[in-house]
Structure formats: C-alpha cells, structure tokens
Design a protein that fits this description.
By secondary structure, the protein is an alpha+beta fold. It is built from eleven helices and 15 strands.
Length: 327
C-alpha cells in the first residue's frame, strides 16, 4: 500500500488527487491531506442549495464537487481528511465500517469513545466528527472521510447555511448533525499534524506491505491537469448540479420589490419570470429572454445585464441588488 502524506492545501488539487489515485494508480493507497477553507459537495448535489453563497464569496471559500456521493462538508486546516483506494476485484463494493475502523482504533487507543453510527458517520458521545463517502471505478474502491480536529465551527455552520425556501429540486440534501472537534476530547496536548502522523503510523503498522510514497513529477502533472480541466471549473462544481427550480423575493433599498422565478438545467437559466412592484420604462420580458441560457453564476449574469440600460427596466434598483436576488 502506498502511504501518502500530502502537503498541498488547495482543495481543487486534493479532490483531483483522489480521482487520479483511483483511476491512474494500480497499487492500493492511503492518503492524508488538508484543505484551506472550502466546501466539498457530493457528486449528486445541487451546489447552490447546500451553501450560503454570500458567506462563501465574502470569505473566499472555494467550492468543489467530489466524485463520490453523500452530503456537503466544510474543510479548513483544522480538518484532516483521509482516503483509501483499494483494489477489490470483480463486483467491487464499498464498506464504510471496514475503512473507518482504523480511525476508530486510533481514537479509542487515545481514550476517546469514538463509534461508527448511522449510515456513514463517526461520532464521539453522539456528536459527529467524521462524514464518509465512497465511489467505485471498475474494480477499485475509493473511500474518503473528514476528521474534524480543530475546525472553526462558526465558519462550518455559516458556510453551510442556506435558505431552504429558495430551491425546489430532487437533489440529495445534506443532513446537518451536531458536530464536535476531536481536540475537545483529548487527554494529551496534540495539534492536527501530530494527530495526522499518529494515524499514518497506525496504518503502516496494520498493513505490513505499506510504504511511504511521494507524488512523482508525472503524478503532479496529471493531478494538475485534472484540477485545471475539471475540478476548478464552474461547469463541474456548479453547472453539473441536478435540475432545480428557484424562487425568491427581495425588497430593494429604493426601487421596490422584485420576485424571481426560474429553472436551472445543467447550470443554465431557463423559463425566467420576474415580478414585483418596481417601476420600469421598458418591458422586463426582454430581460427574461436575455438571461435565458446564461449560467447561474454571478459574473455571467453581471456581464449580460451590463448590455442593458438597466435603470430603464428596473428604476432605482442597482444591478448588484438584482443579482443578489438570484442566489
């Protein structure tokens, strides 16, 4: 088994590294890695329905879609992530308990009452500290999980807070749980990097064939290509969301109220309808038609609206106010 302790903290790179190890390595792998502040959403989720887009933008939090299912999770440098990639033969299938047991063993060895509960969670005294997800490619299984060690809980809760009334869709929604940091339960002082090293030592002790591995120049180039062509792109992270309907009413500072109704399919707006008590010189149906097919993304909408005499359609309403109402 290749044991990789990766120092990259770019979430686009790290999520790409998971896929690269799954599809391009032939050895079993175990990886430990951390991300700078980011939200990692499940493959089948509607990204915008999982995050507080305003908070995410204000705090420069990256949003990345992973290749596995499950719910959205928040990462920062106080969160340690682990990945197993293993050959499983014909009829490969995942096993959440099997892949999380080494983590439980480490924690229980430190005197912490860690347990596997529910479908895919690890808990301490009933509070979640790890969510896990899996995917299968040919005869290989990828299992990865989060380990909240000393994460900033206020960022976690704020970044993943969203108004549930905005979206009506069939995408998989995340279930929020009471969470805890592992560091709150330690009997000895330890930082996240020391905790990382303890887990790696345990993994290498229970897999006798394991050996340390560093990404080669070829690996780095392959991961960066995946990052640039897939995992850092809006089309994958937002545009690949399931079809959804969006509704929202805003009250602007001096131009009255605006109500938005539209559908989004493959990340692009359709069937836009705009209502409200605003005043206008021109028919807003022209705006609805202009936005048809535009990506449901701030800069794309802004670029489109700047083609207009915007005040002629929405008197005394700022473009930014208008766009904020569409998220």
């Amino acid at each position: 088994m290749l044991c990789i302790t990766d120092s990259h903290t770019d979430p686009y790179f790290n999520i790409a590294a998971d896929e690269y190890a799954l599809k391009h390595f032939t050895d079993d792998c175990f990886m430990l890695w951390r991300n700078e502040p980011s939200i990692i959403v499940g493959k089948h989720q509607n990204t915008l329905a999982e995050i507080d887009i305003d908070y995410v933008k204000e705090h420069n939090i990256k949003v990345v879609r992973r290749v596995s299912g499950g719910g959205a999770v928040f990462h920062d440098l106080g969160n340690l992530n682990f990945t197993f990639v293993k050959n499983a033969g014909e009829g490969a299938q995942g096993d959440f308990r099997k892949f999380t047991q080494p983590i439980i063993d480490v924690l229980q060895g430190m005197g912490i009452n860690a347990k596997f509960e529910g479908r895919n969670d690890l808990t301490i005294d009933g509070r979640k500290f790890s969510g896990n997800a899996e995917c299968i490619y040919k005869n290989r299984v990828l299992h990865h999980g989060t380990l909240l060690f000393s994460a900033v809980m206020t960022d976690l809760s704020a970044a993943l807070r969203v108004n549930p009334l905005k979206f009506q869709d069939k995408a998989v929604k995340s279930v929020r749980s009471r969470v805890t940091n592992i560091s709150e339960h330690l009997r000895e002082e330890m930082d996240v990097l020391e905790f990382r090293d303890r887990i790696m030592q345990h993994i290498m002790s229970i897999y006798p064939e394991s050996k340390p591995y560093r990404y080669s120049a070829k690996d780095i180039a392959g991961i960066e290509k995946l990052r640039d062509q897939k995992f850092s792109r809006w089309e994958w992270n937002f545009g690949d969301s399931p079809k959804y309907d969006f509704e929202k009413l805003i009250r602007t500072k001096s131009g009255g109220s605006v109500e938005f109704h539209f559908n989004v399919n493959k990340g692009r707006i359709s069937d836009m309808r705009i209502y409200g008590d605003f005043f206008n010189k021109y028919d807003t149906e022209e705006v609805e038609k202009l936005l048809d097919g535009v990506a449901h993304e701030h800069d794309a909408i802004l670029s489109t609206l700047r083609q207009l005499d915007f005040n002629g359609y929405f008197k005394n309403i700022r473009i930014e106010e208008f766009i904020e109402g569409m998220f």
